[in-house]
Amino acid sequence: MTVCVLHAAAEMFPLLKTGGLADVVGALPPAQSQLGTHARVVLPGFPAVLAGLDDLKLVASLGAAFGAGDIRLERGVLKPHGVVVYVVRADQFYDRPGNPYLDAAHRPYADNDRRFALLGWAAARIATGVDPEWKPHIVHAHDWHAGLAPAYLRAFEREGAARVGTVMTVHNLAYQGTFPASEFGALQLPGDFYAVDGVEFYGLVSFLKAGLYYADRITTVSPTYAREIQTQAHGAGLHGLLQTRTHDITGILNGVDYSIWSPSVDDTIAAKYTAAKPAGKSKCKAALQERMGLTRDEDALLFGVVSRLTEQKGLDLLLSAVPDIVQRGGQLVVLGTGDPALETGMKNAAAAHPGAVAVELGFDETLSHSIIAGSDVVMVPSRFEPCGLTQLYALAYGSLPLVHRVGGLADTVVDCSLENLADDLATGFDFSAFDRAGIVGAIRRAFALKARRTEWKNVVKRAMGQNFGWETAALRYAEVYQGLLGA
Ligand code: ADP
Ligand code: GLC
């Protein structure tokens, strides 16, 4: 039997992206379809989503729900892979300029509960047959935005609908989608769902908890994070529930879409290169130094960051180590956007070290590729990291990752310790204690390795030879689906 799965999510590359969730939702469905699982996606009808799809057609009118009238379900195709994407059209919810979650003042929209309840509800409607031409066996919900999908499916079953399997993937437990209990009435769920065994979380409605409670299976995006979130220290209040579901939880590492993130095919970088012919990488470095106003110096060890500027990402710790990079003759380039305090901190660092530190505030897909390609070292010093994608992209581009050893970072980067170098395993640098001494130690080891040119080249080659293709993850998800369907 061909398993049909419907992914429900808020973002999908290249239609709309604010972080790694979009990369995953853009790459996993085509990888699954190639390996025999039939995957489709449902997204909210944000303007960028509508603009990027071909052949949009009306599937069904869904009437009024959650205070939105005239809701329509449309279906289009995303090229080049040809993934079929359902779009929930509710213009009063989704036709807003800018960020999909935040208003112009960077505050969550006041009606986010209804906006994303509609996404979960629409996924459940598709799964119960609203499209006469297609119905999934499984709804696969991503993050809190889609967390109510399993709850609606359980509610529809009570009314006689056939059972549909559900998987909830946690990309980040820190974002839970919590709302005042007074909003529960607007969500069109049975009254008894507002309970500890349900959507209630410390007196609030939690979309993520709903997904974790009602879904048949839970996955998260790396094996280490799957273990971490079941501990009090990293469980963000949900570790108790997660512990009760430990046998239903699987950690599946994200992959890399090498048709987009590979220096041998990347049209956006200054020069293409491969592990065997790496000359283009120096051109990428020179172009990046030029573009960012850094001193043109081939020998300066260039550290790069592409990141959301949030507490999670540990960039305050990096700021404390900037003098250690600069005093050793290194350079730092940062692309990011987010917390005003971190943005200011970055700008101040650039002003204090002209020619050695450069910062671009904003979201810029092309520049992100230039930084991953042009840097010698890509830094991901996150306090916690469910998976992390930039360290995987860095490996592919021979830019050695420097990471805090947590979550998916621990699962993907092998430190240049003497033992790992001797055993031909090393691919980057890591540090365990999240403090200045920890990160500075790793930075010093990066400078030391760079000075040993042959060894550096060997590690770069090994990094570029790592394979984190999506096939492995797609097969693991297929196992989860099969276990769930009893196949
Ligand atoms: P997260 O999803 O927590 O933000 P990931 O490492 O999984 O972290 O994914 C981040 C994705 O977003 C990567 O594709 C990265 O290149 C991209 N990204 C982050 N910040 C920016 C930015 N300011 N401009 C362009 N791309 C960015
Ligand atoms: C989240 C996590 C990140 C992960 C991404 C995609 O945003 O913060 O670690 O790589 O989702 O799964």
TrEMBL record:
PANTHER family per record: ALPHA AMYLASE DOMAIN-CONTAINING PROTEIN, GRANULE-BOUND STARCH SYNTHASE 1, CHLOROPLASTIC/AMYLOPLASTIC
EC number: 2.4.1.21
EC top class, as a word: transferase
Reactions accelerated catalytically: [(1->4)-alpha-D-glucosyl](n) + ADP-alpha-D-glucose = [(1->4)-alpha-D-glucosyl](n+1) + ADP + H(+)
CDD domains to which the protein is assigned, alphabetical: GT5_Glycogen_synthase_DULL1-like
One Gene Ontology MF term: alpha-1,4-glucan glucosyltransferase (UDP-glucose donor) activity
Domain Glycosyl transferase family, residue spans: 294-457
Residues that, per the record, bind ADP-alpha-D-glucose: K17
Source organism of this protein record: Caballeronia insecticola
Free-text function comment from the UniProt entry: Synthesizes alpha-1,4-glucan chains using ADP-glucose.
Identification of the protein by name: Glycogen synthase
BP-aspect Gene Ontology terms: glycogen biosynthetic process
Alphabetically ordered keywords of this record: Glycogen biosynthesis, Glycosyltransferase, Transferase
Superkingdom field: Bacteria
Pathways involved: Glycan biosynthesis; glycogen biosynthesis
Family matches, as InterPro entries: Glyco_trans_1 (IPR001296), GS/SS (IPR011835), Starch_synth_cat_dom (IPR013534)
Family: Belongs to the glycosyltransferase 1 family. Bacterial/plant glycogen synthase subfamily.
Start and end residues of each Starch synthase catalytic domain: 5-243
GO CC aspect terms: cytosol
